[in-house]
Amino acid sequence: MSNIPEIRHVDLSSTATEDTVLILASDGLADLYQAELDLEGFAKQWLHTVTENSPKRPALQLIREGMAGGDVEKASFYLTVEMDSPWLDDITVIVDKL
Fold first, then answer.
1. Which is nearest to 59 in space by CA: 28, 30, 31, 94?
2. Which residues of 44-68 are buried (b: 16+ CB within 10 A; e: fewer)?
3. Which of 17-21, 36-40, 43-47 has the lowest mean pLDDT?
4. What is the spatial distance between Cα 46 and Cα 48, in angstroms, rounded to a whole number?
């Protein structure tokens, strides 16, 4: 992942609509995940996260998974913990089932 934008035009018309998910995310999402994955590795992991059990808020599920491995209480702790120095990475995630 990189902070340098990469633009690609991909024709999704031949993809079955029930299997197609578009995930747009800033590099902050990749920074949450501790694994050293390449772009394809992230894509597979994120696709599994947003399709497993069809979460109502798939973008939030991706953030929770990155912060705390899907543990809601642990993720809540990280979001509300008092810290000596403020830290919050810029994270933007949009998930759209096409």
1. 94
2. ebbeebbeeeebeebbebbbbbbbb
3. 17-21
4. 5
